[in-house]
Amino acid sequence: MAHCVTLVQLSISCDHLIDKDIGSKSDPLCVLLQDVGGSSWAELGRTERVRNCSNPEFSKTLQIEYHFETVQKLRFGIYDIDNKTPGLGDDDFLGAAECSLGQIVSSRVLTLPLMLKPGKPAGRGTITVRKRPMLAPPCASDLPPSYMTDTPAPQVRCSDYDSDGSHDLIGTFHTSLAQLQAVPAEFECIHPEKQQKKKSYKNSGTICVKTCQVETEYSFLDYVMGGCQINFTVGMDFTGSNGDPSSPDSLHYLSPTGVNEYLTALWCVGSVIQDYDSDKLFPAFGFGAQVPPDWQVSHEFALNFNPSNPHCAGIQGIVDAYRQALPQVRLYGPTNFAPIINHVARFAAQAAHQRTASQYFVLLLLTDGAVTDVEATREAVVRASKLPMSVIIVGVGGADFQAMEQLDADGGPLRTQLGEAAARDIVQFVPFRRFQNATREALAQTVLAEVPTQLVSYFKAQGWAPLKVPPAPAKGPAQTPQV
């Protein structure tokens, strides 16, 4: 089955555009481009031209596919159109602004200054982008062209349950949402073969519908556009198995360019997540090291050595704190995940007490080996599964990560030693070196693929709608009748 696409509709307006025409104002048009790599940009669409206007509100909207797990870098270019040719080479450039689609969807309204080139503003010119979700046709590539007009009324099947799966058909009936909503309603259950064989056959029973409720199925984008903040926390492995950081063989060794597997993985994931946190302040911790001044082993020390305020300014702030902390600690052990998971879970529990879809927490653990406190970690994950929280584990180096796969629990719910099952799957594990020959985007896509589903499943289970319900998509919200 094809992947169903989420579309975002963008409305564009500008203010205080510079005037290029003599004796009149400019005739602006907006062109939307997307970074496709290699310093190349692909045009996604353009608005109409607005004549003689310095503060245009373009009526034509622009659409773009939305993918949470990738950084979708966009460029809005404004041009003064003086001819009817599609090319822009002969038209005056009025300025441009760049941002990510993540910034747009996570902002109520995004206003950016227009630039003629880096460091040179286009006067007082600004561009404002407003967004609205859209619904693509449901897996449209799998549907025949006649789907919208020739779809038959839904069929309801009633069967006699068998544990081996060979359920015996009792009968069926066709209905519609309108009929289901006209409660109380009754439908005759008809078995087609019996109806053909027996002239005296009437039905195989009657189905009575006493209540029917239509529930809106909110998407990840609905929650983000509604104001949900994604709080990002990082935990980094400082155990002795990483090797002496001064040795080129160490996983913590900083190459002449200042990077290693830990920082590469951090940038891959963090560059996506950071767009969904308004203050861009991220708690960052280390575990498994002896820390000054008493040189006791700590499993949740602040990378900036400020336990009362472990927040770092942006992903670059985490990188800077890591580089400064590395020579100040002694790599030791063991590899304990539970303390940091429990740390984040405490904040997630406080957010849950608000009983609103206002915050969700994502913990990124970067480690070089198997977890030592297995049972404590299992218990921490099971407890966290009841909270607005996800855990991403990236394994760096070439160790055997089989134990990590168990935490991922793709084969069934994770359980504690006493048998308590996780409320939902919140762990995603990915070995970094599986992607060493792939692009950074490929790692981020795999690592973050499950976060939207995990966020939606939690808020849906709690019955919490987005804080601010977005405007209805152009083709109406996805709705499922509950009988």
From TrEMBL:
Listed GO biological process terms: cellular response to calcium ion; negative regulation of gene expression; negative regulation of non-canonical NF-kappaB signal transduction; neuron projection extension; positive regulation of neuron differentiation; positive regulation of phosphatidylinositol 3-kinase/protein kinase B signal transduction; positive regulation of tumor necrosis factor-mediated signaling pathway; proteolysis
C2 domain span: 1-114
One Pfam match: C2
Gene: Cpne1
Gene Ontology CC entries for this record: cytosol; nuclear membrane; nucleoplasm; plasma membrane
CDD domains for this protein: C2A_Copine, vWA_copine_like
Protein name per the record: C2 domain-containing protein
Family: Belongs to the copine family.
Native species: Jaculus jaculus
Stored InterPro entries: C2_dom, C2_domain_sf, Copine, Copine_C, VWF_A, vWFA_dom_sf
Recorded superkingdom: Eukaryota
GO terms, molecular function: calcium ion binding; calcium-dependent phospholipid binding; endopeptidase activity; identical protein binding; NF-kappaB binding; phosphatidylserine binding
